[in-house]
Automatic annotation (TrEMBL):
Domain spans labelled G-protein coupled receptors family 1 profile: 98-188
Species of origin: Anopheles maculatus
UniProt keywords, alphabetically: Cell membrane, G-protein coupled receptor, Membrane, Receptor, Transducer, Transmembrane, Transmembrane helix
Entries under InterPro entries matching the protein: GPCR_Rhodpsn, GPCR_Rhodpsn_7TM
Transmembrane in keyword set: yes
PANTHER family, per the entry: ADRENERGIC RECEPTOR-RELATED G-PROTEIN COUPLED RECEPTOR, OCTOPAMINE RECEPTOR BETA-2R
Taxonomic lineage: Eukaryota, Metazoa, Ecdysozoa, Arthropoda, Hexapoda
Record protein name field: G-protein coupled receptors family 1 profile domain-containing protein
Any GO BP annotation: adenylate cyclase-activating adrenergic receptor signaling pathway
Chief place where the protein resides: membrane
Domain of life: Eukaryota
Length: 188
């Protein structure tokens, strides 16, 4: 009964993560389309994206005052942002999946239930929280260039980031201390 409940809980967590990854991809694709349309026209009416007068970027490197080829940047930027979004989604998915596998292995295999491996399970849970609560929203923030989830959730996200990262670091310290004790006094 407990194993079935654990498997259902893990499947629910994976489904939630896939939903978050879908949100990341959709938001990044929508933002890339908006950024491309903003880069193509800036309200000057000619569709060149260069504008006129002092606000057109004269004196700024790559602005209208210089002869530069901005077409390459406009074409490559959405492509590079798409690759970045896919790469971040893969990293997040692999992080969550790997940490879930570590937890399942320690839970299901009786010989792995030792103190040192329980530290590893604790580290896996902390890293699972980092991947699901911190990395997903950080990926959206990095892709968009701004925070879209509101000021209240920004404070909550920063608290998740600090708490989960600190828990991961403290688990690494506990694991290293455990290894040191076992090396220093192996008969314990």
């Amino acid at each position: 009964m407990w194993r079935l409940l654990l498997v259902l809980l893990l499947l629910l967590l994976i489904l939630l993560l896939l939903l978050l990854l879908l949100v990341v991809v959709v938001v990044s694709a929508t933002t890339i389309g908006n950024l491309t349309s903003v880069n193509q026209t800036d309200g000057s009416g000619d569709g060149s994206g260069r504008g006129t007068g002092a606000s057109s970027g004269a004196g700024i490197p790559g602005g209208a005052g210089e002869d530069s080829d901005d077409d390459d940047v406009d074409v490559l930027s959405p492509l590079s942002m798409s690759f970045l979004g896919v790469f971040l989604s893969i990293v997040i998915f692999l992080s969550v999946a790997g940490n879930i596998l570590v937890c399942i292995a320690i839970y299901t295999e009786r010989s792995l239930r030792r103190i040192g491996n329980l530290f590893l399970a604790s580290l896996a849970i902390a890293d699972l929280f980092v991947a699901s609560l911190v990395m997903t929203f950080a990926g959206v923030n990095d892709l968009l260039g701004y925070w879209i989830f509101g000021a209240q959730f920004c404070d909550t996200w920063v608290a998740f980031d600090v708490m989960c990262s600190t828990a991961s670091i403290l688990n690494l310290c506990a694991i290293s201390l455990d290894r040191y004790i076992h090396i220093k006094d192996p008969l314990r």
